[in-house]
Write a structure and sequence with these properties.
four-stranded antiparallel β-sheet; Immunoglobulin-like; alpha/beta; TIM Barrel; six-stranded mixed β-sheet; Rossmann fold; 717 residues; globular
Length: 717
Amino acid sequence: MELVRNEVKNAEFEERARSLVAQMTLEEKAFQMVHGAPAIERLGIKAYNWWNEALHGVARAGTATVFPQAISLAATFDEDFLEEVADAISTEGRAKFNAQQKFEDFDIYKGLTFWSPNVNIFRDPRWGRGHETFGEDPYLTSRLGVRFVEGLQGHDENYMKAAACAKHFAVHSGPEDLRHEFNAEVSRQDLYETYLPAFKACVQEAKVEAVMGAYNRTNGEPCCGSKTLLQDILRNEWGFKGHVVSDCWAIRDFHNGHGVTAGAEESVALAVTNGCDLNCGNLFVYVRDAVEKGMIPEERVDEALVHLFTARMKLGMFDEKAKTPYDDIPYTVVDSADMQALNLKAAEKCVVLLKNDNHLLPLDKSSVKTIGVIGPNANNRKALVGNYEGTASRYFTIAEGIQEYVGEDIRVLVSEGCHLCKEKISNLSQGQDRDSEVKAVCDASDVVIMCLGLDSGLEGEDGDKGNQYASGDKPNLNLPGRQQEILEIAHASGKPVVLVLLSGSALAVNWADEHIPAIVQGWYPGAQGGKAIARVLFGEKNPEGRLPVTFYRTTEELPEFTDYSMKGRTYRYMEQEALYPFGYGLSYTDFTYTDAALSADTLNGDGIEVKAVVTNTGDREGTETVQVYVKAEREGTPNAQLKGIRKVALQAGESREIVIKLPLGAFALYDEQAVSRVGRGSYLVSIGGTQPESRSEKLTGKKVAVLSVTAEEEYEF
């Protein structure tokens, strides 16, 4: 749905903001540039706290629907659905805001400016915050990011439903423990080809209201005070009209961490002068002093405040109640039955079936009398939600979901198995303190569900309370603690074993791939996650998820974590074989592609259409994720890159022709000077259910249709 804002209305808001700012003292202006902006009663300005979060549901402000984590939602490969989820989040956000305003609650996490989505590229599986992102691919991240922003901000021509924020701008993806001092060095080619596209799409297509700078430096400039990023690219190249906010307390890093300024006033001057409008933190109270000393022009301060108050006016905060279409959303929509149903649907759509030898899944309730549910994530609520989470009224762990699903028909035996990451559960034990219980459960069970992986206490943001790995980054891709050992115990029992992984990132489960017949990636599936996974395991829901990240075999094959070159990283540039490739995922049914064709043999300015007939040749309904990839047949170019997605639900035996338009830009690549062009020569276009590469073919048993098109002339963008 195309978003068309009323430019006349926007100009009116901007003029009103300009008039309001003109009446402020310099000190009042300075205090309006920190996230906890105080009231100015003489001007009728209420207190407002800009800091709120909505990564996968309204966060940190009481009860709200806790949707699957962002990386989980990315596994749907479904941009329409991402907008539906984001629209639900902003509905709850408005409902909570309306109630909070009614009772004069102006605290943190109570506003309509949501600092989401995180559209950084998940370039390295060790990064602790990768589960906040939409994965490793610029195209997928762009499409999902745009639709998430549109869902949050709404489609009213006059008012925003909520204000979204694309973060963290730019070139940010770890290491977490160095982020306050780290300089991410990146070529212009990688910058424009990998790190910037999702931000550009959010700005130019979705008209995102805010952009948040990153903690790190990029090529020597601190991101929250970078002329290159904030002025040259964001404002001048892309025409960004909204406001820029710093990451929290990032401005003090200028002098304390990066050492590019001598103290607070210099740091504030650098940030504000180069385009940062709002400080998450309190350092911008120095704006007054910096202006008085001639370090910042007051006109630039006024510009920043016009950006900020225009945003608040777009949200209807300076109009009488009932002026916006969202002022009457009642609190009762929060955590409603409709929200819970959507959440369950989201969790189901996220699940990725990685392996299913001899059709072990789906399980048949009629042939199973006892199920063993084993592992530290069997009953771990933290493994349902990831970080930046809200509080659900009820949670369903995997064990709880299975218990509810089978009811009294099947006995469910549950064992924690081992600690998530430590050598023993009880500090007083001799170790291996649940091994005998694991063996007993396996011995008594007809099938064993092993619930392993991570939670947000192991991967997350630097400084998050409870991170076992301190910085939040993973030291390696292995199952932590004794998880591998209890998995091997279960396998040795001789009983059929299903491995369910809950994690926000790729794990190197090489042994499991060789020995365990069925493997399911459940991500952090939200408060309804256990119910969803139970429905998938028993076949009530056919898995449709695809991997938004590559599952590697080892960390040794990866470049250094601090190396921001894309060489050797992600499916687009890797040379080795993946354990499970980007875009991969199985189904309980089977899909066949026929009659693949292109609309032309040569490219022109209008791009090209690729089409194929997709048929569900299995015996049950299912949803296929049609993927189109483009590969330039020239040396030094990336592997085939995702350039088109379409979800298609088909009943058994049903066929449908799918047509996907590829614009000319889908064939363009950036050169070392960051010039985007379509070069002369041949391009391969594939259409199928996964990547056109050998590991995907081996895992699926299918070859993807690959077609050829020629560019007879060069096009520059």
